[in-house]
Structure formats: C-alpha cells, structure tokens
Amino acid sequence: MLVFLLITASAATAIAQRRQPANFLIPTTPLPPNDLTVRREGADNGTGGRYQLPDSTWHEALVYEIKRDRVHLGTVGTGVSRAYSPEQIIRFTADSEIYSALPQGFARELFNAGGYTLFDFQKSNNPSAFLGWTTQQLLLRVHTELPRRLPTGRRKFNKAMLAVVGDNPELARQLRSNKFRAWPDAADILTTYVLTQNGLSK
C-alpha cells in the first residue's frame, strides 16, 4: 500500500512539473510564420467557451476542435486558432460542457462533486462515426488520486463501484445484485452517494 501511494505521489508530481505556465495566448494578429500549432479557421464558427492556464487565469475563447491530445481555441473576430495540449491548459469549457486535462488527454466531465469526478474519455483522436463507442472510456478520479478506468461489463463495473461507494448500505445492496450498468448509471450512483454523505436525498 505504501509503495502504491509513493508511486501515485511521484506520478502526480511529474504531471504538475510538466504543467508550467504557458508563455503564450491565442494569437490576435496574423498567423505567425512556421508555427504549426496555429491555423486559419475562416469565419468565427467556433463554439463559445473559456480556458484556464496553469497560472489559474481564465480567458474567453472560441472552441473549434476537440481531440484527445489537443484543442483548437480561437479569439472572436480573428478567425485564427491555436492548438493547446493537456500540458498547457488545466481545463476549458465549450457551451455548457467542461473538459479537464488528464494524464490520458482531454476528457469531458460527467460528474464533479464531493471529491469524485467522472470523465468521458475518447482514447482515439479520430473515432469511427459508427464504432466510436468502442474507444470511449469512463474514468473516475477519487479526491486527488490519478483517474482510473472503470470497467464497462456489468459485473466488473458493479464490483468496482462497490469498492468506491460500498459504505452506503442501499447502494451496496444494489451493486451486489449487479443492478447498474456503467454508461447510464455511473453518474447517478455518484450523485446519490454524495448527496447521502451530506445528509441529503436525491
């Protein structure tokens, strides 16, 4: 157990060290020559959003494209975007969705409360229109731990969640009977758990 904690702490330290404050923002001037991270987007047809740098400052942006390992963000009125990697920004928003930078890449938040964060992570940069679900993963971060992948098979998923929320008697009973499925139920399980931990009901 001590070895696992030391490995987790060193991995988290390495991630934090990689995330030095970015020394650039989205360009508002003509395209810099020979900068492959910057591209012309044409009309301002991106999605409204914001992004947060490692120095905790937030900036308005247009979100043009979201990939596992990069997001293209632009400034209103310029038609220019810059590619950001997970090492360069902490999180960004697109409409009402929130994306976080994880060691695996950018992931969409499905739930975030009480120290539990559930993510939808697409591990392929170019998922198939028909089979994209096969490269989709549920990731769970508990407090400051590194995110871990949740299994999607019913029995394995219920067993994995039992280890997280098993001190709730009603949830434990349902999980032992394999009541839940990963994709439709994971966020609901966490919602119920956090609410009851705080003396509330769903």
Topology record:
Blueprint: H1 2-18, E1 38-40, E2 47-52, E3 58-66, E4 71-74, E5 80-84, E6 91-94, E7 97-102, E8 105-113, E9 116-122, E10 136-142, E11 148-150, H2 154-165, H3 169-176, H4 182-197
Antiparallel strand pairs: 1-5, 2-3, 2-6, 3-4, 4-5, 6-7, 7-8, 8-9, 9-10, 10-11
Keywords:
eleven-stranded antiparallel sheet, alpha+beta, 26% helix, elongated, disordered N terminus
Description:
The protein is 26% helix and 31% strand. The protein has 202 residues and is an alpha+beta fold. A hairpin with a 2-residue loop joins strand 7 (97-102) and strand 8. The longest helix is centred in the N-terminal third of the chain and has 17 residues, at 2-18. The chain is elongated. The two termini are 34 Å apart.
Quick take:
26% of the residues lie in helices and 31% in strands.
- Would you count the extended β strands for me? 11
* Helical percentage: 25-40%
Termini gap: 34 Å
Largest sheet: 11 strands, antiparallel
Mean pLDDT: 84
Please state the CA-atom Rg, rounded to the nearest Å: 19 Å
Number of distinct helices = 4
Reading side by side through the largest sheet, how are the strands ordered? 1-5-4-3-2-6-7-8-9-10-11
Order of helices and strands: HEEEEEEEEEEEHHH
Shape: elongated
Structural class by helix and strand composition:
alpha+beta
Poorly predicted runs are 1-23
Beta content? 25-35%
